[in-house]
Amino acid sequence: MHHYITESGASLFDYGCAFPQACLQSFGLIFGRRSDGHHVKCTVCCNGTKVCNEDLTCQRYPHRNDLIHQITSNGDHSLQFIMTDYEDVTKYAKYQSFSISNETSDYKLSVGNFSGNAGDSFTGHSGYKFTTKDRDNDLYSGNCATLYIGAWWYSSCHSSNLNGKYYHVSNSSYAKGIDWVTWHGHYYSLKATTMMIRKNTK
């Protein structure tokens, strides 16, 4: 297992193999995983462009979103969310098209063509920029990343947030947990989530 990048204090960038392009062609590239809170190191730091280590200090590593942009700008890609609740029910949401822009454009999200059994809680974020604690790109009068404890593609504010606070129980404060609104609403925090990119084949 190869753990390369931590971003926004919420998840490891976990290739699962030494060659990312090979992973993309096979089972997909995992770039966000929450399961037990161990991956939560800090909220967001360093202008959204560096990463937080266990001591909550900043180190110069590539930002996760830079790598996602690089990958998704090279061909067509799909995105899949796999989510498990505290009743151990697992559901998924897949988006046949997925990309994010570069840092200059604040990693604006483009996503579409939903399928799955978890409901669509992500298409509504398409077209919005990535907001962190110190880069407020959302439409809310405050900062959604600060209010809801995690960086995400907020509008004002969200119908999903897989970078929210890990509660270790299903119930959470309004919209501050790991949310997927079309499945469990804003007061339920999910037990485990995975975000995966796959390169589309013709």
Keywords:
4 helices, Fibrinogen C-terminal domain-containing protein, single chain, Fibrinogen-like_C, mainly beta, two-stranded antiparallel sheet, disordered N terminus, 202 residues
Overview of the structural elements:
The chain is mainly beta and 202 residues long. The protein has one domain (3-199): Gamma Fibrinogen, chain A, domain 1 (Gamma Fibrinogen, Chain A, domain 1, Alpha-Beta Complex). Helix content is 11%, strand content 29%. The protein has 4 helices and 11 strands. The strands form 4 sheets. A 5-stranded antiparallel sheet has the order 3-11-6-7-8. A two-stranded antiparallel ribbon has the order 1-2. A hairpin with an 8-residue loop joins β7 and β8. The longest helix is centred in the middle third of the chain and has 9 residues, at 64-72. The two termini are 29 Å apart. The model is unreliable at 1-27 and 37-62 (pLDDT under 50). Residues 65-201 form the Fibrinogen C-terminal domain. Keywords: Disulfide bond. One of its GO terms (cellular component) is extracellular space. It comes from Mytilus galloprovincialis (Mediterranean mussel). This is Fibrinogen C-terminal domain-containing protein.
Low-confidence stretches: 1-27, 37-62
Strand content: 25-35%
> Per CATH, which architecture?
Alpha-Beta Complex
What is the general shape?
globular
Q: How many beta-strand elements?
A: 11
Instruction: Give the helix proportion (percent range).
Output: 10-25%
CATH fold descriptor: Gamma Fibrinogen, Chain A, domain 1
CATH class: Alpha Beta
**Biggest sheet descriptor:** 5 strands, antiparallel
Tally of helical segments: 4
H/E element order: EEHEEEHEEEHEEHE
Mean pLDDT, nearest integer?
76
Q: Tell me the span between the first and last alpha carbons.
A: 29 Å
Number of domains: 1
The secondary-structure class comes to: mainly beta
Cα-atom radius of gyration: 15 Å
In CATH terms, the superfamily is Gamma Fibrinogen, chain A, domain 1
- The spatial strand order of the largest sheet comes to 3-11-6-7-8
Organism: Mytilus galloprovincialis
Protein name: Fibrinogen C-terminal domain-containing protein
InterPro entries: Fibrinogen-like_C, Fibrinogen_a/b/g_C_1, Fibrinogen_a/b/g_C_dom, Fibrinogen_C-term_domain, Fibrinogen_CS
Keywords: Disulfide bond
